[in-house]
Design goal:
alpha+beta; disordered C terminus
Length: 450
């Protein structure tokens, strides 16, 4: 499955492009605020936010795999800036004292960076702390899989998105300190001069431009490193690629699973990991169930029960897909010692122990698949379809084994129970939030019919 571990060179460009689109939107907002009447500043910010919303929405409709967390973060920042600015001016209109005149867009001079930078800092601070729970990240994981499942592309997106957010958070934090320190210590509220405008406006724009140049160099060097390691697929190579279907089988007997304890990790060839030895590929798009059963029958040498686990298309190569299957054998592991592939039977309790305490001993994709399997089975045991606990005892934590997998009628392809695992009655104010979500979804459906 080496090709599924590579990434499209366009993905690195999109990673930089998304950052650039967001930052240029902020630069345009601050520039237009200086050129237009000050009272239009919230309007300009909302227009820039609307542009970012359209950009993110189009990417979502096209089901692009690029990470959109930075444009979403800057979208939230622009909307927050607009509302904070309006609230400050409303309080000023109501006669609240102590508000600096430079925060009032009806007065001259109005200095938007005094509000913009702290608001952006707080927004990205909150998003960094809640990164794994953000809707944009949750939807991405549900649609494309987690970072381990997506291989090199997932690792790059996970690391770089976090780095971009921390970079912007630190930059907005430093700018906030510099600008407010200059305002409180050096600024004279008599006549604003060129040095003042440099600190209040152009310093932020210059920092954004320098940051852009840094990321251009960063992603170009990353591209060169990946190309040198043969982990890049060019657009021309993508066009020449034929459709491929990758198959992974988890062969199970009782509560034991057949594994290769000395499998090679493709990312670090010197490291051994535990993985299923039953993997193959077919140079076609789609494969019939009888053909799949014939493949695993030849690989094991035994008749068994084939059951679909789940599958996805590759995040980067749309003509490639990866399908997982269970293959259940009746009897005892001792009855199946002469498999056609090298490996050993391992008690699933040991797999679960390694998964919880030392996941690096398992192949990344096995960890990802185990996460999905455990999440769906344990969530279904704990909660009902409405997200409420089946047992009133909150300390109740069920367990599962491979007998549960074989006896289960759950659809592991469906994300229903994964969504319930992230939003259920253990969530604070669940009832209120659930009714709100239901109301919002009804409004969306009704508006789509208009």
């Amino acid at each position: 499955m080496e090709e599924n571990g590579k990434i499209n060179s366009i993905q690195l460009y999109k990673l930089w492009k998304n950052l650039t689109v967001g930052m240029v939107s902020v630069i345009a907002m601050m520039t237009l605020t200086k050129l237009l009447p000050f009272f239009l500043s919230p309007v300009v910010a909302l227009v820039a936010a609307a542009f970012l919303y359209t950009y993110v929405y189009e990417s979502r409709v096209k089901r692009e795999t690029s990470c959109m967390i930075v444009p979403v973060g800057l979208l939230y920042s622009l909307v927050s800036y607009s509302f904070v600015t309006i609230i400050i001016n409303v309080l000023y209109a109501w006669g609240v004292r102590g508000i600096p005149a430079e925060l009032i867009f009806f007065l001259d001079p109005f200095i938007p960076s005094l509000i913009m930078n702290p608001v952006c800092f707080l927004t990205f601070l909150i998003m960094t702390l809640r990164r794994k729970k953000l809707n944009v990240c949750v939807e991405c994981r549900l649609q494309h899989g987690d970072s381990m499942e997506r291989g090199v592309l997932g690792a790059i997106f996970s690391h770089e998105s976090h780095f971009q957010m921390k970079n912007l958070m630190v930059m907005f934090g430093i700018l906030s300190v510099l600008i407010w320190t200059y305002y409180l210590v050096f600024y004279v509220n008599i006549n604003i001069n060129a040095r003042d405008w440099y600190m209040f406006t152009w310093l932020t724009i210059i920092c954004f431009v320098l940051d852009e140049l840094y990321f251009i160099a960063r992603y170009y060097n990353l591209y060169l490193d990946l190309k040198e390691n043969n982990e890049i697929i060019t657009p021309d190579e993508l066009q020449d690629m034929t459709a491929k279907t990758y198959l992974r089988f988890y062969v199970i007997c009782g509560n034991h699973i057949y594994v290769d304890a000395h499998a090679i990790d493709p990312k670090t060839p010197y490291r051994e990991v535990i993985d299923t030895p039953f993997q193959t590929k077919r140079n076609l798009n789609g494969i019939t169930v009888p053909e799949i059963k014939r493949v695993i029958r030849q690989m094991t040498g035994y008749d068994g029960e084939l059951r679909f686990f789940f599958g996805r298309k590759s995040s980067d190569i749309v003509t490639h897909s990866l399908l997982r299957y269970f293959y259940f054998l009746d009897g005892k592991p001792e009855d199946f010692t002469d498999m056609n592939v090298d490996g050993e039977w391992m008690d699933y309790e040991k797999i679960k122990y390694l998964y919880s305490n030392n996941p690096s001993r398992l192949a990344d994709i096995s960890v990802s698949d185990t996460s999905r399997l455990a999440t769906i089975i344990l969530t279904e045991k704990t909660f009902d379809a409405r997200g409420y606990r089946k047992s009133k005892i909150k300390a109740y934590n069920p367990s599962f084994n491979l007998y549960d997998v074989r006896n289960s009628n759950l659809d592991f392809q469906d994300d229903k129970w994964i969504k319930i695992s992230m939003f259920n009655s253990d969530t604070p104010f669940y009832g209120l939030k659930r009714r709100w979500r239901s109301l919002v979804s009804k409004n969306k459906r009704s508006s789509s019919w208009e």
